[in-house]
Amino acid sequence: MEDESSENRKQARLAILELANMISVPMALNAVVRLNVADAIWQGGVNSPLSAIEILTRVLPSGNGDAENLQRLLRLLASYGVFNEHSPSGGGEGERKYSLTDVGKTLVTDKEGLSFAPYVLQHHQDALVRAWPLVHEAVVDPSKEPFERANGEPAYSYYLKQGNMNELMVKAMSGVSVPFMRAMLQAYDGFRGVQRLVDVGGSGGDCLRMILQKYPNVKEGINFDLPEVVAKAPQIPGVTHVGGDMFKSIPQADAIFMKWVLTTWTDDEIKTIMQNCYNSLPEGGKLIACEPVLPENSDDSHRTRALLEGDIFVMTIYRAKGKHRTEEQFRKLAVSVGFPGFRAFHVDHFYTVLEFQK
């Protein structure tokens, strides 16, 4: 063992202390979302630097609250790039002030009522938090994911029985989906020539609505999800909501679209889903899947860390053997059910568009 006074050992101790205390970061983020700090700072695009006291008067008009503790949260999150910290000029005794970075702006509610804030809240509900101390059980016995061990049933069925959780899940997915779909529709033109399109796991139909607005050649959109999900979906011109089970059959179409569906299932389950897609497509039809795709090699980039963190989230909450996969792993699964063609389109740093041609 090296001398404890060496620089390497000092850095190692610092790194492990940071990792051990890392829970402070998502919980601080959850706290500022619950307090609606981003909207309070943004104020319709002004984004003027505000002190903790000034922020507090906007989020808690009653005058209660502890500005010092709010500042502690803001300082931590500033170190992770969520806020800009503006120190007093000349190093004086004035108040620190905070504005939003580009990361912080993702938490601002837009004109459609969407942001990444519900995604943050969805990840930190009590039922999900209870699962994290049991992550090691996914190694000991992967027959049950930690969420089920902690809560007595799988996440999706649990959500459906908890109306508030299901509603938050839908809002979270909309907040994440809409910005991605805007980026995808600017960079990917694979919907040209498609007349009938099915969105598998389409939830409220946001993705289909955006696709139909961009591609009027799509004459019929089918939003396909569980019956209890589509029962609450809003009416969208050109879209029919259809309830069903993707493990049994999928409506026929020229193309089938899905986003963040395959990653939560095992290899065998994915083969079943892909086989049902293959059976519902004509010759020349295609499956378009938007999924988190792992790099072949690990590194310390934000992208790799975000993808690997998402992979552990899937293992903990949804399926112990559900996982993020590499492009090659997806390609092999598709080939195994008969898809001969495969292309990947890198339109986003988190999601990759995977196109499987029949």
From TrEMBL:
UniProt KW keywords: Methyltransferase, S-adenosyl-L-methionine, Transferase
PROSITE patterns: SAM_OMT_II (PS51683)
Keyword presence, S-adenosyl-L-methionine: yes
Residues covered by the O-methyltransferase dimerisation domain: 17-110
Chain ranges of the O-methyltransferase C-terminal domain: 135-339
Protein name: Nicotinate N-methyltransferase 1
Name of the gene encoding the protein in the UniProt record: NANMT1_1
